[in-house]
Predict the structure of Ribulose-phosphate 3-epimerase.
Amino acid sequence: MSIKIAPSILAGTFENLGAVVEKIEQTNAEVIHIDVMDGQFVPPITFGSQMVQSLRAYSKKRFDVHLMVQNPEQQIPLFIHAGADMISFHVEASRHPHRLLQQIKQSGVKAGIVLNPGTSAFSVAPLLNEVDYVLQMSVNPGFGGQAFIPEVLKNVEQLAKWRKEEHLTFEIEIDGGVNEETAFLCKQAGVDILVAGSAVLGTNDWQKAIDKLRG
Ligand SMILES: O=C(CO)[C@@H](O)[C@H](O)COP(=O)(O)O
Ligand SMILES: [Fe+2]
């Protein structure tokens, strides 16, 4: 399976996110990564479902909504309605992750569970039958432009091992500090989807940056 690239609009200019999404649409990236932050689970507040609904008009690519929010159960129906294709929430923020994953999938949206760098892969082991993807954070969530934490690759390797042994089909996505060098390590460990904020949107040729990440 070839690697998918998910540019993150968090690294874009917030005064015109429509133009940012439109510009990603011109590249061959498979997915657009959308970081939703509520000022509680993480300090910053970014945007909500209405913004995502408005951005929908600018792209036909898959919208990958990464919920960094304290009460994902409250937000999920709104993002389904807004046109998300993939929705993930943090295992650290959820009381009933199994039920929430089922809820997302029942609406025809791909369901993902997210792990912070300090969380063990074992904490999502009972959910692996239910998930479409696992998002491993490779920085502490809340901010773009941070350095990749290489220790998280142990989680990725463990997830890839379980996937193989148990003939599961979930994808592994990684998020934070992904650049040309760290992308190589991620692919070796078993990652399928690379999220990249600054490594793509921080350059003046987004397609070239995407090509470099594919390697
Ligand atoms: O979820 C997050 C940050 O919390 C990410 O999606 C960032 O947007 C990644 O940015 P870079 O580390 O690639 O600059
Ligand atoms: Fe993210």
